[in-house]
Every structure is written in structure tokens, then in C-alpha cells.
Specification:
The complex is a heterodimer.
Chain A: E1 5-7, E2 10-13, E3 19-24, E4 31-38, E5 42-50, E6 53-57, E7 64-68, E8 74-78, E9 87-94, E10 105-106, E11 110-114
Parallel strand pairs in A: 2-11
Antiparallel strand pairs in A: 1-3, 3-8, 4-5, 4-9, 5-6, 7-8, 9-10, 9-11
Chain B: E1 3-6, E2 11-14, E3 19-26, E4 32-38, E5 45-51, E6 56-59, E7 62-67, E8 72-77, E9 86-92, E10 103-104, E11 108-113
Parallel strand pairs in B: 2-11
Antiparallel strand pairs in B: 1-3, 3-8, 4-5, 4-9, 6-7, 7-8, 9-10, 9-11
Classes of the chains: A mainly beta, B mainly beta.
Amino acid sequence: KAGVTQTPRYLIKTRGQQVTLSCSPISGHRSVSWYQQTPGQGLQFLFEYFSETQRNKGNFPGRFSGRQFSNSRSEMNVSTLELGDSALYLCASSSPRTGETDTQYFGPGTRLTVL
Amino acid sequence: SQKIEQNSEALNIQEGKTATLTCNYTNYSPAYLQWYRQDPGRGPVFLLLIRENEKEKRKERLKVTFDTTLKQSLFHITASQPADSATYLCALPPNSGGYQKVTFGTGTKLQVIP
């Protein structure tokens, strides 16, 4: 099976712009989660989508939003970019069912730099 | 409040020795605990899962223990190699019963010195 793919891999934007990141999960996986990772901060959970519905949400401002399509592909959008949004954005897919484990399979990430 | 603690200081170890990393948690009652490996600039890779009723799990040179009384998991790499150098993260769900989203620790950086 092909792994999780993310596009683009690198992105440079300026403050105030918006950005959209894309993630294609492993075939058959219906859950997609997004994380932000900055040096020294670890993995910060943004949100999770399952069957086109947001199922869990982290503690991020409303500038961060996402969606999931019927084929499980997901996009994440950040509006009005700030310098502090510079980070590695990771997408992970999983195939959780009630009573089973939330094992995450991560993509390579999108490195976003905000100037 | 719920907290996952991993040693934020890097662990330096000589090649061939056993590396031991610790994951402590408070205010969690997880049904399982996971360990991931992350190389710089890449996404984490799932390594092992251990359930609350398992004391120990092994996979090749990796061994994980899980003590729900101490609220601690230990991750061992035996006969460590420079290629084992990476950041290792633990992850666990808040409670047992049904699907729960895991939370990740901040990770411990392991450096294996040749």
C-alpha cells in the first residue's frame, strides 16, 4: 500500500497570506489528523476528520481550518498567516474503529515558512 | 491536568550499549501506549504498541515495558547502533474504552555514538 502523501513538501509565504495544504491518506483509512510541529514544542494536535466530519479538535485559533472529502483526502487551510505559523505540518491517517487503537501513519510533512 | 513526560534532554549512548528511554504520565488511564520514532524533518513512524494487560513487548532489538501502577513505560534498544539515533515519542489515549485520540509526548532525542 502507498503511504500517506502530503503536498506541497515546502512552502514559503508572507505574513497575512493564506495557505492550503493537502493530504492523501493510506488507501482504506478514513481518519485523517493534522499536527503542527515546531522546534521544542513537540507534536501539537490540530484536528481530526473522519468520514468528512471533524471528530476532534485541538486548541488552535479559528485561522486554522480543515476539511475532508468523500475519498478521505484532506486539506488544511491557514488564513492570515503569522510568523509563528512557521512549522512542519504533519498529516497522519489511521483506521480506528471503536475499541481499537489509534495507530497513526504519518506523511512526510509540509515545511511552511512564513516571512 | 493530564500530562505526558519524556526526558527533554538528549540521551547520548555508546554504540553497542542498551538505551533506555522513559515515558511517564499523570491523570491518564490508558488502555495502551505506543512508541514512535522520528527522524529530523520527517513524520514519526510507529514502532510498538503495548496494552495495559501486557507487562512487556519485544520486537527485534526493541523492548517496551508498561507499568500502570507506576504510570510509566520504558523503551529499550539493545545493542544500539548509530542508525538508531533519532527522537523517540510515546503516545497514549486518555482513557480506556472505545476509540480515543492519542496524545504525544514531546519526545527524547537519542544519539548513539560510534
